[in-house]
Amino acid sequence: MIPGFEVKVINSLDGISVKAWNMLAGDDPFLQHEFFSAMHDTGCVSGKTGWLPQFITLWEGSTLRGALPLYLKNHSYGEYVFDWAWADAYRRCGHAYYPKLLSAVPFSPVTGQRLLAGTAEHRALLVSAALRMAKDKNVETSVSSFHCLFPREDEALEMEMAGMTLRHGIQFHWRNREVGGYEDFDGFLAELSHGKRKKIRQERRKVHAEGIRFQWLSGYDASHDHWRFFVNCYNKTYRDHHSMPYLNLEFFLRLGKSMPENLLLILALRDDQPVAAALNLHNSRTLYGRYWGTMEFVPGLHFETCYYQAIEFCIAHRIALFEGGAQGEHKLARGFLPVRVWSAHWLAHPEFAAAIGNYLKHEAQDINHYLDELNESSPFRKDKRGNPKPGS
């Protein structure tokens, strides 16, 4: 530890000022004091739901210099980096995989800072503190492991240097034209191959033929009734997939009040009555697609509400990147391109650590091959040399 610095583990952000925390978090909406506090205070994320906050903070006197969002977890729900097979292997060998330590934004497969600190030295202290905590808890309470999900690539490499094992994944992201952005949606479509362009136009016509129109609402504009309708849609989506929803109406209402400028609620309406909704978070650079639901089936409505309306919003507001959520090879045909995402892992059991490390090396090779295949199937028109040219 650097002289003059102190590490504290906290289970609430109540004792940290919004200003001090957000200076570390920057403008990432998922790292804001308001976002975490809404998760915690509404009971969506708590020890009762299997997410016990154990945030690591780094202090120089009374000044907050660094932080690592961290949870003690007794399950693997809401993570989007799947380790159920690891947990099952532990169980079959007579070992307990839970509890584990997890650094992540709950229920949010979005890449961003996890080591909230301004210097490499401070980031190294945070990783060291998390690993030390995992090792200490392994002795005290049999914590099996420490995981960090969706860090930036540079942070992932720093964690690898500290002794963690990296895992690769793939998401599909949409990018605006690099210079100036697209003028409109047709400008974006013009960059796609003929077949992909035709398919998107057909999908949009089907929705229009159903009499559906759309409304964009910020948190400032969304009323209690809007949020109640959205939550009904959100809950229905989980029920339709035989799952329990993670978030409640209180959380969304609080988010609408505390972070109104970071929210985009897209409503699909017929005869001025809402039939579907999608919620996105954003800053000036990135739009993050998060939750969607519909009260009735309309052909093409999912793609229009979740993707095409969001792309139009990015074009209109000169937003460079749209992260459409986890997985989804179907997004490729709609102008999204594959990108590599990261996670980092440390396991206390040496034999399991070696076996999983070996597995991840082979998995990374498979990911590399899959990325090559996906890039060969780019939806964008090719130049004279046969190379895709998105956003040229």
TrEMBL record:
Coiled coil regions, renumbered to chain = none
Q: What is this protein called?
A: N-acetyltransferase
Which InterPro entries does the protein's record reference? Acyl_CoA_acyltransferase, FemAB-like
What Pfam families does the entry give?
Answer: FemAB_like
Q: Which domain of life is it from?
A: Bacteria
